[in-house]
Structure formats: structure tokens, C-alpha cells
Structure prediction request, 845 residues.
Amino acid sequence: MQNDPHTTLITADAPVAAETHGGRTKCLQRLVRLELPVPRTVGLSFVAVHKIARGEMPDMAFLLSPFEAGELLCVRPSSEDPDWGGPSAILNIGMNDARFVDLAERLGKEAAASLYARFVHSYAVLVARLDPDVFDVIGMEGQASLSEALRAYEEETDEPFPQDPAVQLAEVLRSMARAWEGTSARLLRQAKGAPADAGLGLVVQSMALGFGAGECGSGVIQLVDGQTGLEQLTGRYLSQSQGRDALDGGSEALFLERDPRGPSLEDLAPQAFEDLIAYATLMRTKLREEMQVEFVIEDGRVHLLDGVRVARNSRAAVRIAVRLAEDGIITRQEALMRIPPSALNELLHKQVDRTRARDVAGRGVAASPGAATGRIVFSAAEAQACAARDEACILVRRETSPEDIRGMHAAKAVLTERGGMTSHAAVIGRGIGLPCVVGASEMRFQIRKKLLTGRDGRVFKEGDVITLDGTHGEILVGEVSLLEATLDDAFKTLLSWADLERDIGIRANADTPADARTAKNFLAQGIGLCRTEHMFFEDDRLTVMREMIFAENSEDRRAALERLLPVQRADFTELFMTMAGLPVCIRLLDPPLHEFLPSDHAGHRGLAEALDLPLSEVTRRVEAMGEYNPMLGMRGVRLGIAVPEIYDMQVRAIFEASINAAKSGAPIVPEIMIPLVSAKREVELVKMRIDVVAAAVRAETGADFDYKLGVMVETPRAALRAQDIAETAVFLSFGTNDLTQMTYGLSRDDAGRFMSEYVKQGVFAEDPFHTLDVDGVGELLILGARRGRAARPDLVLSMCGEHGGNPESIAFCRAAGFDYVSCSPFRVPVARLAAAQLAIFDKLG
Ligand code: PEP
Ligand code: MG
Prediction:
């Protein structure tokens, strides 16, 4: 028998670690160190399990040597992070005909037969991979079930049920090791943040059976509620002594909270109950975590089988981390490090306003909380195409599989016909904070025909708008009123701690006062990008805007712009007032003008009426304004130079609004940003005109004010020439959406069509519009930052593309010495936490 370093008996000083043997193995060792009553356990390392998957078995005699002959064993998974899951535990290994005879004498035939039947069932389904339906109908109770299960096993495999405990154990180990290496298991854990090569350890443990003369039974107990994170003793205990099957997890459970139908554990075994609470409290303090304790009671004495982190949703995770820190068990920094930033998404979701009338088309299982409205799509590819067009969509599938993951990321919510709380869609949905309703079987799903039929027969087709309420499991017709996320005290406390740690600013991209309110609510430190074009799309303004675009000469243009000035000024005033003195960075008009014009015949006719022009004239002028490649055409600063009156009006509105807002609130220094710059001269020309407007406003109002002028770096040339540009601009904000488009020469509006193919074939590791391309675009950022700061050492640097809220981009910007990132308001809390974690990581070395 050889001594195998990857097969280790868990003692107080055995050489095991979470990184090599998994979290469960390490946890059991900690319980042993606390001198808690843990059955004998052997840990198999990641290396051992990986070898087993390849067919190289460990020395079974050595593995079994710590256990007594005839002892029943169980095997449980031990992944590095318990959240990454693992194959199901298998119990009662070692049950065979001989053992049945022994146990029947001690426990009675029925109880021994149940143990055996259960083992045959899990072995057949999980190890021999036989059809679960065959065994599900057999049942697992008593001698009749046992005979039937053994017969079914033999029929299905043409072999008798294996009797040698070493063979049984070897097969169990092999099946668990292989299950971990399978594709779906890998994709599922990767979706929860596990690396592709995450290892699995296994623990082989002696079974405490929970049979004997005094009080016997088994259960679980924890000190907090996993849904709310609040202090609350919860658990379940099944008493064998009370004549109930100790292994039955069904309705006869005796709850620890007093069950009106029967005595509680406290009544049945007061000492054991007291011990359990003491053990759980000790584990909370010493393991520095809320633990669920799995236990067996034999003759009134407690055995602890396992301790696992209490399963929790994100809200509970935040509250638990904050309470542990407030109780002095962990530090605030540790509390911050314990919450994955993306988990906050779940707390930030909007909810359906249930006080308003709702039109319910169907119901299913409320599998992942939050609500979203969008157009129906029936495939992951369509979802990605929608996302590329910036359109909200709801992915509707019969059920989802790993191939749908990209589509799920692209969708705002997911609806499936099949599945329950643990189906793929549900697990992934909760993992990525995506509202999800599963098992909506009362609706009819015709995926190929692209039709969804409500329970009352109403038919919805691709493109129709629905709202999905993942919190209540409802599918609602059309767009419904949604409530903003409510943030509890623990969430706010955690983020206030994050703000004390982080060393990079977080602003929000906010175009409207409503966005600004959300940003303020989430404690953004200002607005990093206000895209002003959105202000012109409202109906009353659009006509005036079109009049301005159609103006024959500068005078007519000015007249139209004069009508736009008060609305623009009112928008900015509200924005400044909402942000109450925090910096607000306003980008001057960016899109090509023809985006404001109608594109179809009816629209042209409407415009002809509104402007009192012949239809032919309108059509001709609209056509004349068309461009072959508008994203590279007359837009951004080019517009500002060719049609300077627009920027004149906008900066006047900004200055007048800042004077207005400062009268009743904090002083404001507006930041004005010029889009799509590629040459220093562009900035100089715009600055000259802004200064003229500023002087005029100062003279007219008698107010003194200042402003900051910055440039949006969206073209590779702007990054390359950042040194020149920074002579005139006091800040540079990298617009990584356009910069990615122009660096790759890849249309951001069309890339969705082939992006999945590109990622699948490994051309791109990830979609560069979602994940910053640090190699190419990143190099331009570093170069631009360095060159800009060479001209102006106090140059303020930021990123405001969609990448700004991703933890990886924040890490990049921090390392490159940026002052802040700006992201969508809902990403602000995620960004605050991610930034704090980066700073803590550095501080801890
Ligand atoms: C960008 O290009 O990165 C950007 C933020 O601007 P927009 O998305 O409006 O083009
Ligand atoms: Mg842009």
C-alpha cells in the first residue's frame, strides 16, 4: 500500500487547503480543529479527482484504511468555492447483501432495506446513469422497494448490483469526477465566476446513521434566514425515534421552529439542541461565516456531518457580510471582498408596481427576481442582434441550455416553458441577475413559428412587447409601470464602506433628469456623460429641430435654435439642480443631423405639412442629407464646425442653466465635452466660439462663471494626438464605444450579426463592445493618457463608454491612472464595490 499525498485523512494538522482540496474539505478540518464531533473523513485533492476522471484510480486500500471494515461511507463534492456547485453527494456506500443482514438485526429489516434501497437508487441513477424514471416509480421504502430496485438494476445493466464496497466506492468516485469535467457543469460554474479549469476535491466520510435506543434523527440548522440575511434560527429535524423515517425529507419534517403538529427538537433532545446552537455559534465566530450545520443525533448525542456556508441570495449575502463586520467577526474590508460586484445587480432591479392594474398573459415559476420590459425574441442570436441595436428584448425559449448563455446576457429577461427553480435558465438567471420566469406551461410556446400564446388564447409574435415579472412569476402584456429598486440599510452601509476604500471616482452616464435622480440615488459622484441628443427627440422639440435642420441660412437656423434654447436650458437646469453641485459633463450634439429626420414617406409628408413645404422638396432635401457612412460622416465636432449655431445655442443653454441653478443651489462649474474630435484645431475652433458665448452671457447677466472644456477621445487619432489636444482641453474622456468601432473598423450596429461566430471561432476572446479590448483599444487609452498628461500633468482622465461599469475596465482605468469611470446609473453601485475591491486587493498586497 503506498502513501498517496493526494489522499489525506482529515486531522487538525493534515496538509489540506481550499485551493488544493476544496472548501468543504478545509471546512471539515476547521471543525476538527474546533474539536467538534465530526465523523472520520478522508479528503481527495483536485489532482486526485482529475486523475480519477482520466481513469487513474487512487490506491483504494490506502483510501479505505482509516475506516472500519463494514462501515458505511458517503462521498461529497468539495469545490474551491462552494457556490460553484458540484455533483450530488452519494450516501450509504458499502450497503450490500451482507451489510443488510447485519443492519437488519440492529435496526430492523424495514429500516435496513430502506438504507439499501436508497443507495441502489442513487447508484443506479448517478453512477450507472440508468433512466431515473425507472427508479422513481419504484420508491425507496422497505423490503419490497429494495427487491424491486435490485431487480431493475440487474435488468437494466445485465449485471448484479455490485457487492464489493471498494468497487462501489471506486465507481462513485469515478462518476463524480467525470460529472465535474462535463461541458454543462463547466459552463454552469463558469457562469458563476469559476475559472475554466476549476478543480474538484471529494470527501469520503464515515456515515453516522442516526439509529439507536435514545433520541435519534438527522437535520440541518442555521442561525440566519438565507432569504433575508436576518438573524433567525431555522432548520429541519427528522426524528427516527418518533416513528418517522429519519431519512425522509418530506412533509413529516419536525421543524425547529415549533411545529404545531409535533414536538420540536428542543423538546425531544434538549441537550442536543443546546449543543447544536453552541456549535453553530462557535462556527460562526471561528469560521467567520454563517454556516448551515448538517447533523445526526444518535442516542441523544450530536454528530456534525458537515458545515456549509448558508445558501443565500444577494440581499442576504450583503446583510450577512455587514453583520459579521459589525459584530467584529470580520473586518469591513473582508465584508467588501465577500460580495461579488455583479451580485448587486440582483438588488438593483426594478420591480413591477403591483398597485397598478396588470394584464397577465400567463404565469410560471418566479425563478430570478426583478422585472423588465422588452420585445419578444425566440433565439439567443436574435437576442444578441437586439442588444447590438440597443433594443431591450425578452428571450423566450422552451428551455435554455449552455448555448443560450450569450443570448441570456444580451436579453433583459428570460421566459421558458419548462423548468423549475434549479433549471438552467433559473440558475443562470439568478447568477447574472437577470429576471427570469420558468415553467410557464400554461402558455403555448411555438418557438419555430415564433409565436407565444397566452393562457386566454391571445397570441404574441416576435417583436411584441411584454413585461416579465421574475419576482412574482408573471408575464404581462405590454409595457407596465416599474418601481425603482429599494436599497436596504445593509446595502447602503456596505457601499459607504466601499467609498472609504476606493481610489477612483465613479460617475454616471445620465441623459435625463430621471437618469440623474437614479445616479444621485446610487451616490454617483457626478455625471460623466450627458448625451444631449436625447433631449431633442421628444415630439414638441423634434419639429423645431427639423425646422432648424431645414433652415436655408444662418438667420433661419438661429430663429429655430432660439426656440430650442429655453427647452434645452430647462433640461440643463433640472439636471444641475438634481446633481446639487456635483460635476455634470455635457456632451455637445453628436449624431448626424439626418438621424432627426423621418425616413419613410408618411414621415416626409408629416414634415412637409409641419414646415409648410412641398413634399418633393422635403424628400429631396432628406435624401440630399443622407450619407454613405454616417458614423464616419458629418457628426460630432464636424457638425459643430460646419453648423456652429447649434453648439452656440447649447453652450448658451448650459451657461444660463448653471447661473439659474446656482441661484438656488450649490455653485456649478459645468463641464462641456466635444465629441468625435480628431484634430487639435477642431478643439481650438470650438473653444473660440464657446468663449465668445461665455463672454456674451457674462455681459448680459452680470454673473461670473467658469466652465471646463474637455474632449471625448473616440477616434484613434485623438488618442495619438492627445498631447496637442490637451493643450486646449482640461479633461479627456475616452468614449470606448466609438473608439472600439474605429480601432477595429467594426460597425457597432452591425457586429451583432457575426459576433457570436467570431467569439465561437476564437477570433475575439469576447465581444469587444462588451469587454474592453485591453490589447488594442487599451493600448490607445494608455498612449492617449500618457501623451495627454505630458502636456498637462493635471489633465483629468476618464472612460465613459459602455465598458466603464465593468470591473475589468475599472481595474484597467485605475492602473492607467484615470480619475474616474462613468457608467449607466444602475451600474454605479457595482462599480463602487468593484473599485473598492481593487483598492483593498492592492492594500493587502
Ligand atoms: C462612446 O462612443 O464611447 C460614447 C460614450 O458615445 P456614444 O455611445 O454616444 O457614441
Ligand atoms: Mg461616441
The pocket of magnesium ion (ligand 2) is lined by residues 714, 735, 737-738 (CB under 6 Å). The CA atoms of residues 87 and 176 lie 6 Å apart. Confidence is low (pLDDT under 50) at residues 244-260.
